[in-house]
Amino acid sequence: MFKKILIANRGEIALRVIQTCKRLGIQTVAVYSEADSRSRHVREADEALYLGPAPARESYLVKENIIAGARDHGCQAIHPGYGFLSENSDFAAQVARAGLVFIGPPASAIALLGDKIASKSLALQAGVPVVPGPTQPLSSREELLAVAEGLGYPVLLKPAAGGGGKGMRSVFSPEELDEALRMAQEETRKAFGDDRIFLERYLVHPRHIEIQILADHHGNVVHLGERECSIQRRYQKIIEESPSPTVDEALRQRLGEQACRLAREAGYANAGTVEFICDREGRYYFLEMNTRLQVEHPVTEMVTSLDLVELQLRIAAGEPLPFKQEEVSFRGWAVEARICAEDPSRGFLPATGMITRYALPRGKNIRVDSGIEAGSLIGAYYDSLLAKVIAWGKNRPEAIQTLVKALNSYHIEGITTNLDFVNTVLNHPAFQDGALSTGFIETHFEGAQMKIAPPVEKLHYMVMAATLIYHNRQSIIRDSLKPLVTQVGVTHRPQPFHEYIVKGETDIFQVRLEGDPIDRRWAIRVNDQDYQVKTPVLEYYRRRLKMKIDGQFHYFRLQYRMNFIWAAYCGICRTFEIYSPREWALAQYLPKPKKREIADRLKCPMPGLIVDIRVKPGDRVFRGQDLVSIESMKMESYVASPCDGSVEEVKVESGQAVETGDVLITFKL
């Protein structure tokens, strides 16, 4: 076994590798850029190597510096994590030439399987079904049009190199082809240095199933079952689970055998993932093979009780696999939610900022792989993934419910995340029924909001939590004024109950509290429904609340926002206005909010780098028209015009760094 390794990555995956290395007694060397100098993975490693400025191309992607650093620090091997250089065959080859071990597959296997065209041909050779489409890249628009007409629309443009959803574009008609091709080539050229594009039939709302395989250098290949990864946005996964709710034992065995056969055909070694998609008729097709550890590997670890990083290390050190296929056993169910710095209400645009408050969820069968803490600065240079929350249960409903409770109590402030959005997905009836596809979000959500109303009972729970926090604060204020209350001629009796009117968006709730804050037991009526509630010792500044309702514990996140209380529970977010009956009667006399004015300027929605500007002063534009392209967190996004009008002034230029709120373009309306 190795004595010391270098981890050529950052964030939560670097910490994940460090965790296993500590258990095995292996020393670790972390690498970091200028932006990551205070990051957790740097502190928790035994040693650290500075790579350079914040941009990845000047730090995490400089192969020579990483390899030289590994040799200077006396390392025997390099673990690439995922992303960055993990699927770069040149890097794997350079590591080997330097006399070090690359903890991953051979460079030849990475080159073969990393090329989607070559891997598709290999799959056909191995007898694995593939999505209909040519096996060679298409070089011209005419070729693309001809093949698309032959396959029938819609079709999918995919980069020949790389993965992670970058460079993929769906095309539903010939008129969309030119623009889709341009954007696909541009994005894949920047991401992978290779703009070759191939085309295949686009399966509308398929399911995404992947098989985890392990292969050693002694000819042994096994699979560790499947993962369901159909819940995606921008072709990137956000919720994964194992096993799949729609894969039976016979299908599991068939897909596992095909995945192992493909790995043998490629001369594969170490951990890898073979991805399949399933159409509406139940037909499975090979999609691609990821030649690295996957982000979602923890769900496999939780149902197999195996440490995939440890197995990676042992395989790379030359050890044979310690078990055979028939010895792999599966227990229970695991579900993972990816927590990303992004704003679901704005099309999942990346978000940046400093984490000001941070508290992890705790409990049995809950795991959090996180690279952040209070004080972490999230910039625009790297991927938006912050953490992963994984839950295990004896069955799927139990695993989902455990994960929901964990997300209810996961506290991140200072930056916008998708935390509540993924919780909403988990609570959606269609998800809980296992009716999954890659079009799940598009089908069931309008922006970040479910198309169906939230359950009334859950809204009642939120109303009770917000009202009790408000009532507790009012009681503290009243108690502080007691010395001023007259003691002559008046007997002060406590009120037997308290009434409030609570407004949450368009919903109005009548709340009646009856109980004792010292005993902390309450009888609460919300509209016509009665509940028995027990509260903890409350403070008015509490941000997380664990409250027992009718004998069951529930977790809430709450914040005071001016005079109102914002609450989050099971993915539902509401700001509640709480009034006494007298205040409510007077509220009708409050001035109405002014109507929002039409925007006459385009503001930057996220920090990043200006890539493309599509207009010039004097051009006529229309609301929703794409005007400016911004690159942020390895993703390129267009910013649309907020109005109809003509361009008055373009205030930025290509290559310029911009921050959230910067004015990009002004208009004449």
Question: What does this protein look like?
Answer:
The longest helix is centred in the C-terminal third of the chain and has 25 residues, at 456-480. The protein contains 17 helices and 40 strands. Helix 4 packs antiparallel against helix 5 (107-114). The chain has 669 residues and is an alpha+beta fold. The strands form ten sheets. The chain has an eight-stranded antiparallel sheet with strand order 13-12-9-10-11-14-21-19, sandwiched between helices. The protein has an eight-stranded antiparallel β-barrel with strand order 25-26-27-28-29-30-31-32, surrounded by four helices. It has a five-stranded parallel sheet with strand order 3-2-1-4-5, sandwiched between helices. A hairpin with a 2-residue loop joins strand 29 (544-549) and strand 30 (552-561). It is 27% helix and 32% strand. The chain has five domains: 4-103, Rossmann fold, CATH 3.40.50.20; 132-201, Dna Ligase, domain 1 (2-Layer Sandwich), CATH 3.30.1490; 207-449, D-amino Acid Aminotransferase, Chain A, domain 1 (2-Layer Sandwich); 456-481 and 495-587, Glycoprotein, Type 4 Pilin (2-Layer Sandwich); 601-668, OB fold (Dihydrolipoamide Acetyltransferase, E2P) (Beta Barrel). The mean pLDDT is 91. The chain starts with a strand and ends with a strand.
